[in-house]
Sequence to fold (701 residues):
Amino acid sequence: MASIAELLEGKRVCICAGSGGVGKTTSAAAIAAGMAARGKRVAVLTIDPAKRLADSLGMPELGNVERRVDPELFAAAGIDPGTGELWAMMLDAKQTFDEVIRKNAPDAETRERILSNRIYQQLSAALAGSQEYMAMEKLYEIHADDRYDLLVLDTPPSPNALDFLDAPRRLLQFIEGRALQVFLKPTGLGMRVFGRGASVMFSILRRITGVDLLEDLAEFFGAFGGMVGGFRERARRVGELLADPETSFVLVCGAQDEPVAQALRFHDKLVESKLPFAGAIVNKVHYGGELGSEGADLVPALRAELGDDGLARRVAANFADFTALASHDRHNIERLAAALGTDAVIEVPYLDHDVHDLSGLVEINRYLFASGEKERAVTVAR
Amino acid sequence: MPGLLDKRLVIVTGKGGVGKSTVSLALARAAARRGMRTILCEVSAQEHLSQVFHRAQVGYHEVELDEDLWAISIDPDESMREYVLLQLKVRAMRDLLFRLPVFTYLAAATPGLKELVTIGKIWELTLDDRKVKGGERYDLVVVDAPASGHGAGFLQTPRTFANVARVGPMRQQAETLDAFIRDRRRTGVAVVALPEEMPVNETAALERELADRVGVEVTRIFCNGLYPERFAESELELVGSVAEREARPEAVGAGAEREARLVRAACRAALSESGRATDQRHQLARLEESCAAPVTRLPYLFAPELGAEEIDVLADRVA
Fold:
């Protein structure tokens, strides 16, 4: 079993990817806290942290800027981070999009036209992919400032992890809107090519969508036209950062069939896109007894120890339940490691309590940052 | 409590990873077992159903999984096609439309259009007099809605869309769908939550957001994955002392040593389960306190993967 510190050796960016509900935000925060505790200047960018975790780290809810986590919190958790610093930020996709428009608009008039356009307003808040892309955009921006040794990005909570990698393409496709631009200009190519067909098209689309929708779209592309080149260039550089050898993707998943299958699909996509994969974190792993202990009848031995038959039976039944889960988890983790072709699969046990503060993150880091035999023994014994 | 199964449509929502698909299936199963002709709609091609019922694929057509239990996987592109088909009776116009890249583009790029036609299809499924050729009436439509990545999302779409398209037939359509979603008599909304800190907060926030932004009242909240309370407080000390006990001197031989180790592990597992169960009860209380809708408790199922048998266990509880 590798340690996350080894996997992130020499890396400047760590992207935590995975489907919803697998503990991605907690893992990202734990990685950042652990690396800060090891003397690095680290910033964690997260979309949707649990309020208690955000509060306990002093993460501001608004503002779209990173804030330093109070060093006193480390001291209270018994950690001396030395030169290390932990910064945290709650990312606001809509606000990031607005910032990008403000920065790139050629003039004030264009800027206002875009920001007040209803298509833009819906797009920046709702279009699939815009939140994902804006996370990358912010990552790029902070990376360019070069203030941190390591940036940890918690990807947005999309139902499908693959949406993240697909986001720049989808957003660009929309913004470029070539098909529509051609069509919308009455004197443009569309009219010349389709002739009368185009006016029929117009009337059909009118019937289906309503005229105003088309007008708003035309207005949007009219205003956006001059910025498309800059946007495309920006997206290209964001793409380069994702593919940089100093970037690494860490897959976060659970040990059940579906999350493991999702993680494998994501890994395939990373390989296909030539993006740097570092390893996987499997959260909430059940440990129980030892392999092969399924079916062992512990009731007599438990009865002897506990002196209560009913209690002994309940303890045994509970143990059997957890042992079944544990052996299923073990099987899935082995399958995952084999398919990934790596031993860089880090297991975090199903902890007895939820994590919502720095000391909880420190607890998780006993597993994330464990690499030797001794630590493994501790892990397995749980 | 007015039953979810008395509605015509039940939309099941919640964050990713909370068991939304399982609860949807259990609801549909419960209705089917009462003899209601029921259809379960998957929205984003998740194909959970085919796993449970060992079918190749559900796909965009109504298939019968079991007696009175039907399923469909709603694909937005297919819904769009069907929508246009119903709007435009002239075949040549339809063909022209689908051939043009601009149409595909418009369909893909207009914010909310895909979700709108998806909801449009769901609406079509609830009609007494189905619009689709050969379509039969269903007593209940259960929708496994896409995970609410952020807030009300999916259910808000018709309203969002009505704001984008100010006039025209699509606006009318969007308004019809919005009214349909908000019709408390016919439409029920269930939110699935887990008894954990963040899902509880999110469920309470989602309930408020649905009320404020969509005008939808949550009918029922399901608290999923509750551990059984197997051990009494008074028993834990004893179990704890065994968990911590050193190996006994008389336990000699590999077999006895292994057994003693397993006994300790079993006691540790009991403590761990008990700790989790206590935390969960605390979160369940928070959920009940912070939400207006009634909360139904669903047990954690220890089967590593869920099959038809486990779904039936849940079906008994959800209705």
Notes: Chain A touches chain B through 77 residues (CB under 8 Å).
